[in-house]
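Title: Comparing notes on inverse folding

I've been comparing how different people in this forum approach sequence design from structure. To keep things fair, I'm posting one structure and asking everyone to reply with a full sequence. Here's the target:
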């Protein structure tokens, strides 16, 4: 059941402890890593002169990187055998940095050891190939895990609790043959539950609720010849079915019926937003559910599961093992690290390489960061107390950890490098025309020189544009025009409308062309920095996942086994690491 390694660290490490200690040391002492993971933001790439490429990269790296084609550079970072490269121009310090990132990144290799049950056509309705891959693999994984727990700990898992079930694709697969599991789907959005129940009917897990109608009255209702009040008066209660209550709701509003059967799967939906790992209310509803008693499940023993629970929801799922006596195991795959809150607060401005450029400017993010949320990152005491100050990650670092650089193709890479380039040049135009201003974070940031000119001390006001029509990305000119149009006509951007109209309305095609001509040759600089940021952030994700495992380790009085392993093919689903914990048997 448990893999040989509790963490899937590279084989160069002698032990889990050796890996963890060096991971924490590197993340808190490597200036280069801190620059790429939280120190700078691509939005400010051209707002200072010299630009970020010249100011944040070691000088001996710059000429070598510029002569590399984008995909060749990505191969160098992630795939090439560095020991076999015979290139005197390749800087030793760059090679060392690449090796450091590789050896501190958790291994993501995955291979299914068995033939998985196929999802039926009706169970897989609505799933894209990525979701099919995830659901097939994870349904089989948690079902096997539950069986192993039953054998090893002599405790059956009676129910799976899916944190943030969404459309309940995973729960539907587990409730269907061959698994036939009992599912508690906890979801905060009512529309997701409604949609999930419709899919349950297609899969044969539930049935449309039967409604007995008086056909004559129903036709009068449809024809609009009688009001509902009049129809109620006409209804004849004296029928052989007992008291007749007319029901004139459309079939879409009638709802579904879940009929428990021995040996068959069952789904119960609970609407609610989980603010912690405390499942007292969920468990109480289950314990007092008459349907649970009918299926012989009146003494629930739970496993918390989730595929890609966003942000803190992963923390809640992991904490549920500690907080709830009835939760016997967890298997949580997280994602959306940018949505996590921060337990220790944002990184201090006095740490130059971790200035929170977006946090200092985006009001919502600032409010989230200042909460010092006890549910946020880091979870473990080890990271909270490391070197007394603790380990902190700003939103830029966590956002970059959501990238999947190993999956980037040449076409896809060029497309998003181009989008980032257009956005960075537009930010420079906004700055030059007075739409935005420079923001300086700390006048005492550097001991020497002019601190206000440091790229780590300066950022600009972010103008959140979001996505544009596909046609807007064909040329820089069409991008600028599309962005201006969106910011001045879309009601969601009312805070920008007036100033954009005032400062940008008279921008000419010639001026736009001058900016493109000036900064176009530097697009390669931006793509190189973005590649280094995404590559380095693999260690950020390893840090987040390791923190979650360390949290379970510190509760060894309750948790007997805990580990991390890959459960999906990285090419199909790059957030592929599951955190597993199994509670000690009650003596």
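Reply #1:
Here's my take.
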């Amino acid at each position: 059941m448990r893999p040989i390694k509790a963490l899937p660290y590279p084989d160069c490490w002698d032990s889990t402890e050796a890996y963890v200690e060096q991971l924490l040391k590197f993340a808190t002492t490597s200036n280069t890593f801190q620059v790429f993971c939280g120190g700078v933001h691509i939005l400010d790439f051209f707002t200072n002169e010299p630009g970020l490429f010249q100011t944040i990269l070691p000088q001996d790296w710059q000429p070598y990187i510029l002569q590399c084609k984008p995909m060749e550079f990505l191969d160098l970072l992630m795939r090439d055998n560095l020991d076999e490269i015979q290139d005197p121009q390749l800087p030793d310090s760059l090679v060392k940095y690449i090796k450091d990132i590789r050896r501190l990144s958790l291994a993501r290799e995955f291979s299914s050891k068995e033939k998985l049950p196929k999802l039926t056509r009706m169970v897989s309705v609505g799933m894209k190939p990525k979701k099919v891959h995830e659901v097939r693999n994870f349904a089989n994984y948690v079902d096997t895990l539950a069986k192993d727990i039953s054998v090893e700990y002599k405790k059956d898992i009676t129910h799976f609790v899916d944190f943030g079930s969404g459309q309940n694709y995973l729960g539907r697969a587990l409730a269907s043959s061959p698994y036939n599991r009992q599912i508690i789907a906890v979801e905060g959005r009512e529309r997701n539950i409604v949609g999930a129940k419709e899919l349950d009917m297609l899969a044969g897990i539930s049935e449309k609720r039967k409604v007995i109608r008086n056909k004559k009255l129903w036709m009068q209702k449809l024809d609009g010849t009688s009001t509902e009040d009049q129809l109620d008066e006409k209804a004849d209660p004296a029928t052989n079915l007992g008291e007749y209550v007319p029901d004139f709701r459309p079939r879409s509003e009638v709802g579904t019926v879940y009929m428990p059967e021995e040996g068959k799967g069952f789904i119960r939906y609970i609407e609610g937003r989980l603010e912690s790992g405390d499942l007292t209310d969920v468990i109480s509803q289950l314990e007092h559910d008459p349907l649970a008693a009918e299926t012989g499940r009146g003494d629930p023993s739970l496993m918390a599961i989730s595929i890609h629970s966003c942000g803190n929801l992963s923390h809640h799922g992991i904490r549920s093992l500690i907080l709830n006596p009835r939760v016997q195991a967890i298997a949580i795959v997280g994602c959306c690290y940018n949505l996590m809150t921060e337990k220790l607060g944002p990184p201090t401005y006095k740490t130059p390489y971790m200035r929170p450029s977006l946090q200092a400017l985006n009001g919502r993010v600032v409010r989230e960061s200042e909460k010092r949320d006890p549910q946020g990152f880091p979870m473990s005491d080890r990271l909270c107390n490391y070197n007394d100050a603790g380990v902190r990650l700003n939103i830029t670092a966590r956002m970059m950890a959501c990238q999947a650089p190993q999956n980037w193709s040449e076409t896809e890479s060029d497309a998003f490098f181009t989008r980032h380039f257009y956005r960075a040049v537009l930010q420079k135009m906004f700055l030059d025309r007075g739409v935005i201003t420079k923001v300086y974070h700390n006048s005492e940031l550097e001991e020497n020189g002019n601190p206000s000119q440091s790229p780590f001390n300066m950022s600009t006001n972010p103008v959140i544009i979001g996505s544009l029509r596909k046609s807007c990305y064909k040329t820089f000119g069409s991008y600028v025009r599309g962005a201006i149009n969106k910011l001045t006509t879309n009601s969601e951007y009312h805070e920008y409308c007036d100033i954009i109209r005032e400062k940008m309305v008279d921008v000419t095609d010639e001026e736009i062309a001058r900016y493109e001509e000036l900064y176009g040759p530097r697009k390669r600089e931006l793509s190189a920095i973005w590649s280094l940021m995404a590559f380095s952030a693999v260690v950020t994700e390893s840090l987040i996942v390791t923190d979650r495992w360390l949290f379970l380790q510190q509760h060894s009085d309750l948790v007997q086994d805990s580990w991390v392993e890959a459960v999906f093919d990285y090419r199909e689903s790059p957030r592929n690491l599951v955190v597993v914990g199994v509670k000690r048997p009650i003596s």
